[in-house]
Design brief:
Low-confidence stretches: none
Number of strands: 0
Strand content: under 5%
Mean pLDDT: 92
Order of helices and strands: HHHHHHHHHHHHHHHHHHHH
Distance between the termini: 16 Å
Radius of gyration: 23 Å
């Protein structure tokens, strides 16, 4: 079920909200069970055959976590239990996500005829990583004992289940346990509705609106220099507003239930370095890779050379997490190399004189953005050869068409760039602070003004009218 669909907006969400708050009048546990059931229904609409797998994953990880939290086992036994839990999660993820990729590469290397066709369960990467973090924290002694219903909701909670954010138990389970979140809060419901409307507009009007400009660069034709750049930039902004829209919608939906999700997107194209970019793009994945991969590998504690090695390993695995294809591996390798260069420049590069700070920041911004665009070409392309072909056209200014159509498309992209670079993002507009559980405080006066509410309603209306039958979020396939 898509957030940007009529059944979700007009049927599923109102019923789930009404049931949640009605049950919350007399019980603190019943609304939790209701949300778990609703989340399973949400998941089963398009993935009914994998509901059993999701429930088995929840039961398995809760049991492993229970053993680790109990602390009645010897340290060596606890480590063996953790290893078994993480290995079990990765085995399931690897089987469903990478078995076909592995077989295809074996066939290419040894001319074998292995055929593996396994349907990928939607959201398996997100709920697997969420639970691996839970197990590692349980082993480290950072997890209190949680009731099974609250843990099940932590994993299956439908606003995050399909495409994130990757949740952390310390952020979410206390909210699920709180009686306060079971009572309707008109302020949170209104703010959630406005944030949802902004996200829906980003998805259906902005992301889906620019999508037709992408195909000419990545199709079977031979794009010119300007057509290749227009296609690459169009995909850059399509992915931006698609993921930003999903992140806003997830936060808005959750706010209606009185629950704050962590930020996952913070204007990444305003970044002036690749390090800054990864603090802004898919923020919960960046934090997971840092806390549960990069730091356990040694981080920067064993010298600069090993730091660069750890960065490359982390980003290669981060690229592979996005998809079972060599294009994602190359994308991860590029970002790993970017990060290494970024850190090396910070360590060994010359200091910038104060009078050159502004032009240096502008140059850093342009270099970061162009580097990200180049990497997105591999992220979007069907194969490495296709990606290198598109990049070769982008590097050949002798072949330029720039007719009336290309000029119009370039102006269209310029509008998207202006929004991404200069407009305030949703959390800045709404004053969203998930750590302090605050939203809309800077808009208290505006929220009582009809003009503001009319504008929010118009945004929602445009978003609803822009819904199409084939506008799945890009991150659904990861």
């Amino acid at each position: 079920m898509l957030f940007n669909s009529y059944p979700f907006i007009f049927v599923f969400l109102p019923i789930v909200l009404a049931g949640y708050f009605w049950l919350g009048r007399s019980s603190n546990l019943a609304p939790v069970l209701w949300l778990v059931l609703a989340s399973l229904v949400f998941y089963s609409v398009s993935n009914w055959q994998f509901v059993g797998l999701l429930l088995a994953s929840v039961a398995f990880n809760y049991f492993i976590g229970w053993l680790l939290i109990a602390k009645q086992l010897r340290s060596t036994t606890r480590f063996a239990v953790l290893t078994a839990g993480v290995a079990g999660d990765l085995l399931v993820l690897g089987t469903f996500k990478y078995a076909g990729f592995f077989a295809a590469n074996l066939n290419a290397l040894f001319s074998t005829g292995i055929v593996v066709n396994i349907l990928l369960p939607v959201g398996i990467s997100f709920y697997t990583f969420t639970q691996i973090a839970f197990l590692v924290d349980a082993y480290r002694g950072h997890v209190a004992r949680y009731a099974l219903p609250h843990y099940a909701l932590f994993v299956t909670y439908f606003p995050h289940l399909i495409a994130g954010p990757i949740l952390h138990h310390k952020d979410m389970i206390p909210q699920f346990e709180s009686a306060r979140t079971k009572r309707p809060d008109p302020h949170l419901i209104l703010c959630g509705l406005i944030i949802f409307a902004i996200g829906l507009f980003k998805k259906t009007c902005l992301a889906d609106g620019i999508q037709p400009l992408v195909a000419p660069a990545f199709g079977a034709n031979y794009p010119s220099f300007d057509q290749a750049w227009i296609g690459a930039l169009a995909y850059t902004f399509q992915l931006y507003f698609d993921f930003s829209g999903y992140s806003d919608m997830a936060i808005g939906i959750s706010l209606m239930f009185g629950i704050f999700l962590p930020l996952n997107f913070n204007s990444p194209y305003k970044a002036t370095s690749i390090v800054d970019f990864w603090r802004r793009w898919h923020m919960t994945l960046s934090q997971f890779l840092r806390d549960y991969l990069y730091i356990p590998l040694g981080g920067n504690r064993h010298g600069r050379v090993l730091r660069y090695v750890n960065l490359m390993i982390t980003m290669l695995l981060g690229g592979l997490w996005h998809g079972a294809a060599w294009t994602f591996v190359v994308w991860g390798a590029l970002h790993g190399a970017y990060l290494c260069v970024n850190h090396a420049w910070s360590n060994y590069g010359p200091a910038v004189a104060p009078r050159f700070a502004r032009p240096a920041n502008a140059a850093a911004f342009v270099l970061t953005f162009v580097s990200v665009v180049v990497a997105w070409v591999f992220f979007r392309a069907d194969s490495i050869s296709s990606a290198t072909f598109v990049l070769s056209r982008m590097a050949d200014p002798t072949n330029i068409v720039f007719g009336r159509g290309e000029m119009a498309n370039a102006m269209f992209i310029a509008v998207y760039a202006a929004i991404a670079w200069f407009a305030p993002n949703t959390q800045e507009i709404m004053g969203y602070d998930h750590r302090n559980r605050v939203v809309g405080e800077n808009l208290n006066g505006w929220l009582r003004r009809p003009g503001f509410l009319y504008a929010a309603a118009a945004t929602l209306a445009f978003g609803v009218l822009g819904i199409s039958q084939h506008s799945e979020f890009i991150y659904f396939r990861f």
